Amino acid sequence: MIVLGLESSCDETAAAIVDDGLTVRSSVVSSQADLHAEYGGVVPEIAGRAHVERVMPVIQKALSDAGLSLDHIDALAVGHRPGLIGSLLVGVSAAKTLAWSLGKPLVGVDHVHAHLWAALLERSRTDLADAFPALGLVVSGGHTAIYRLDSPTDLVRLGSTIDDALGEAYDKVASMLGLDYPGGPQLDQLAQDPSADATRFDLPYSHLGKGSLDFSFSGLKTAALYAIRGVPRPKNEGGGFPRELADFPDTDRRDLAAAFQETAATTVSRKLKRAAETFEPRSLIAGGGVTANSRLRAELDTFARTHKLRLFLPPMRFCVDNAAMIAGLGHELLAAGEDHGITLRPVPTTAC
Ligand code: KG4
Ligand code: ZN
Fold it and tell me: Cα of 37 to ligand 1 centre, how many Å?
């Protein structure tokens, strides 16, 4: 079954064509990062308008890259939750229009769940056969959670962040270091400087309650801020930070970036260890933008080896938002008999 997938939940307009859920025939992503950079974050109104301008050209490119026309499409899938409502509306409206005019089934896909499917793309069905039950990890700009997956479509959330998502913490610390939005990839680059010393700054690991599988990254973020600008003075001493970013030398910036990555990656693997003790996973399936992070990828590799788990990590191009993961998971839902048709509505929150 050939599925055309659409993704427009945040600031990427994407379309992809996937055969039988796993074989990616084409994947086109138009990033709006340049439009939002001057504001230091995604501006919902600008994002919605840019999706309107880009959605049809992106679909056309996905078709031409695959050497197909709309006649070859068997079904449509669209990321309909979670996301910015004005952005979701564009993808959902485009998908509904195409499904209705072509007379094809349409399924709505949860974007967070699809990030897990991204790790399975381009594999064979036999490769997936003995992967379950699996430990699932989603680390993106908007979500951070651990799951137990009994099958690719059957997941139970074991824990999630109680404040910032990991990608959000990366972006905010990157911004404190003077890096442009979205800062996660740049912070990664800075930390990879061979002379960076990750032990120079002692940043806190958040464990939360005994046995908790939830995450908290706001303390880590605040500790990074204080390391850069100093601890704020009390009000009766004038308040404010004692230092400016300009007072924080380049060597310190590099070392702090490395310390932040180290602490973030270790925090994730400590929680995964706890989660792995609650059942007997056969594999670790991870996805979301932060799985592009060099330090986290290495940590997950070590974790999987230590716990004798097979590791499913997305190739770099499927870590960040894309529509191949939507089309792929959409195929599984369609094969299971789901068809939302033109009653599908966008929803701002995840169901996962
Ligand atoms: O999954 P994604 O594309 O969008 C959401 O669903 O949120 O994730 C985007 C997030 C951003 O916070 C971005 O900074 C982060 O992924 N990210 C990274 C790296 N590449 C992307 N964070 C750390 N290191 C990277 N190499
Ligand atoms: Zn995402």
Answer: 14
The answer, yes or no, to whether any atom of ligand 1 lies below 6 A from the CB of 140, is yes
- For residue range 113-140, list pLDDT tens digits in order: 999 999 999 999 999 999 999 999 999 9
Q: Is 217 in the pocket of ligand 1 (CB under 6 A)?
A: no
Identity at 36, one-letter amino acid code:
H
**Atom 13 in ligand 1: which residue has the minimum CA distance?**
184
Ligand 1 pocket, 293 CB below 6 A? Answer: yes
Place of tokens 């994407």: 14
Residue 92 has pLDDT above 90, yes or no: yes
Beta carbons within 8 Å of 38's beta carbon, 6+ residues apart: none
Task: State whether the beta carbon of 91 lies less than 6 angstroms from ligand 1.
Answer: no
Residues around ion ligand 2, judged by CB within 5 A, are 140, 321
Mean of pLDDT values over 93-106? 98
What distances in angstroms separate CA 16 from CA 58, 141, 178, 291, 318, one per listed residue? 9, 21, 35, 21, 11
Q: Up-side HSE of residue 170: CA atoms within 13 Å toward CB?
A: 32
Q: Measured from the CB, is residue 264 less than 6 Å from ligand 1?
A: no
| pTM summary value | 0.97
Cα–Cα distance for residue pair 127/291, rounded to 1 Å: 21
**Ligand 1 pocket member 182 (CB < 6 A):** yes
Interval 154-159 mean pLDDT: 98
**All residues at 6 or more sequence positions from 306 whose CB lies less than 8 Å from its CB, including other chains:** none
All residues at 6 or more sequence positions from 142 whose CB lies less than 8 Å from its CB, including other chains: 10, 82, 165, 167, 168
Question: What are the pLDDT digits (tens) for 285-336?
Answer: 999 999 999 999 999 999 999 999 999 999 999 999 999 999 999 999 999 9
Ligand that comes closest to the CA of residue 12: 1
Ligand 1, atom 14: nearest CA belongs to which residue? 184
Structure tokens at 28: 């086109």
User: Contact 310/1 with Cβ under 8 angstroms?
Assistant: no
- What's the CA-to-centroid distance between 107 and ligand 1, angstroms? 26
- Residue 292 Cα to ligand 1 midpoint, Å, equals 7
Residue 73 has pLDDT above 90, yes or no: yes
